[in-house]
Amino acid sequence: MRRGPVLMILASLMFTVMVTAVKFCRGEMSGIDLAFWRGLVSVPLVALTMRGVGFRLRHRRVFLARAAFGVTAMTLYFTATKGMSLVDLNLITRLQPILVGLAAPWVLGRDERAGSRVWLAAAFGLTGAAVILAPDLAVGSLWGVLAFAATCFSAAAHLALRRLAAVEHGRTIVFWFHLFMTGATGLLVLVTERRFPWPPASLWLPVLTIGVFATAGQLLVTKAYASARAPLVAASAYTGVLWSLLADLAVFDLVPGTTALIGGVLVIGATALILTDRHAERAPAVHAVLPER
User: Fold this and answer.
1) pLDDT above 90 coverage of the chain, percent
2) N or C: which end of the chain has fewer CB within 10 A?
3) Which residues of 204-240 are buried (b: 16+ CB within 10 A; e: fewer)?
4) In terms of residue numbers, what domain contains 258?
5) Has residue 13 been placed in a domain?
6) One-letter-per-residue 3-state SS of the chain
7) Is 195 exposed, middle or buried (0-12, 13-18, 19+ CB in 10 A)?
8) Residues contacting residue 58 through CB under 8 Å, at least 6 positions apart
9) Domain count, the chain
10) In this structure, is residue 188 part of a structural domain?
11) Is residue 293 part of a domain?
């Protein structure tokens, strides 16, 4: 197997470990608390990789938009883990490339316009999302809605990243994003709850796991896209669904329901249409299929 897909498969495993740790912590810590610690642990780890790259940001306004959308997406995503299985959560986030493909022409210009295949994919993908979310909505649960909102904000973050990545180094963006996330979420907790988000003593290991494995996943994703064609790498990210299924079974003793499987087939099929589109290689933002992490 080529190096790029192998790296993406490993990245998907890293992110699954991260989300598993998040779900484990959600009984005692909020999504904002966990986003704070995710950033705090990641900042020094990313800084160690910055030799020869530089810390200067030239387009600060675009970065602030990317950071604000990204932090919102991550907080909502972490919050949704409390009430959703990892498989359902993973499948909902597969809508991201479809949303990016639809919005790109409006945000980034006509050169990013979507073809008929993207619109067809959107119809299939949104139908699949509705099938996955239906059981939660039927009993008044909003966890799935939070996951869908996280995916929408993640798509917005990646549209900003598409513009930003043309002029900034990837590791510089990642470093400042984590620093922004740490400051924003920490300040929010201090102002609204007047406390510092210390984890309980029993959760220090999973909290550190979140930051370490998230950082490893992001570095692997960067190397994966530098090693192989974007559609091939992006398609490899679907191993995340398998990793999530295994984590649900092994850690939480959860088995996906029939509606989740049916909806998942629709969402995965929809994104397959995106990945095989002849315009795919010209729009890297569409290939950022992993949720905002």
Assistant:
1) 37
2) N
3) eebbebbbbbbbbbbbbbbbbbebbebbbbbbbbbbb
4) 3-287
5) yes
6) CCHHHHHHHHHHHHHHHHHHHHHHHCCCCCHHHHHHHHHHHHHHHHHCCCCCCCCCCCCHHHHHHHHHHHHHHHHHHHHHCCCCCHHHHHHHHCCHHHHHHHHHHHHHCHHHCCCHHHHHHHHHHHHHHHHHHHHHHHCCCCHHHHHHHHHHHHHHHHHHHHHHCCCCCHHHHHHHHHHHHHHHHHHHHHHHHCCCCCCCHHHHHHHHHHHHHHHHHHHHHHHHHHHCCHHHHHHHCCHHHHHHHHHHHHHHCCCCCHHHHHHHHHHHHHHHHHHCCCCHHHCHHHHCCCCCC
7) exposed
8) 167, 168
9) 1
10) yes
11) no
Per-residue pLDDT of 108-157, as tens digits, reads 666 656 566 766 776 777 788 788 877 776 666 789 899 999 999 998 88
142: tokens are 């909003």
Alpha-carbon distance of 158 to 215, in angstroms, equals 18
List pLDDT tens digits, range 191-216.
Answer: 998 999 999 999 999 999 999 999 99
What does the block give as tokens for 77?
Answer: 């995503």
Contact predicate 173/164, CB 8 Å: yes
Quote the pTM value: 0.82
Kindly state whether residue 292 falls inside one of the protein's structural domains. no
